């Protein structure tokens, strides 16, 4: 299983790191598990699993909950809507 999180670094770095942490905690010992963080366009937050989009902020107009990425992750991590500074670049 391979994940790729493509996101606006200025807006959603804390969110990407929270989701990364949850995925690593669950899958770090799974054979074939890989996770890639990719700087994206302004306002972007997309998650792909095995090259298929499983979440796109462009479609939903909001950030994902962990359970939308994997049902087992529901409630295991807190997704922030803004960067830690409270400011967003877009």
Structure description:
The chain has 90 residues and is α+β, with helices and mostly antiparallel strands. It has a single domain (2-73), classed as Glutaredoxin. It has helices spanning 9-27, 57-60, 66-69, and strands spanning 2-7, 34-39, 45-49, 52-56. Strands 2-1-3-4 form a four-stranded mixed β-sheet. α1 (9-27) links the parallel β1 (2-7) and β2 (34-39).
How far apart the termini lie comes to: 31 Å
Total individual domains = 1
At the fourth level of CATH, the homologous superfamily is Glutaredoxin
Helix content: 25-40%
**How many E-type strands?**
4
Mean of pLDDT: 83
Please tell me the CATH architecture by its name.
3-Layer(aba) Sandwich
Query: Per CATH, what is the topology?
Result: Glutaredoxin
Shape: globular
**The first-level CATH class name:** Alpha Beta
Structural class: alpha+beta
Query: Widest sheet: strand order?
Result: 2-1-3-4
Low-confidence stretches: 76-85
Features of this protein?
90 residues, alpha+beta, Glutaredoxin, four-stranded mixed beta sheet, 30% helix
Architecture blueprint of SSEs:
Layout: E1 2-7, H1 9-27, E2 34-39, E3 45-49, E4 52-56, H2 57-60, H3 66-69
Parallel strand pairs: 1-2
Antiparallel strand pairs: 1-3, 3-4
Summarize the structure.
30% of the residues lie in helices and 24% in strands. It is built from three helices and four strands; from the N terminus they run βαβββαα.
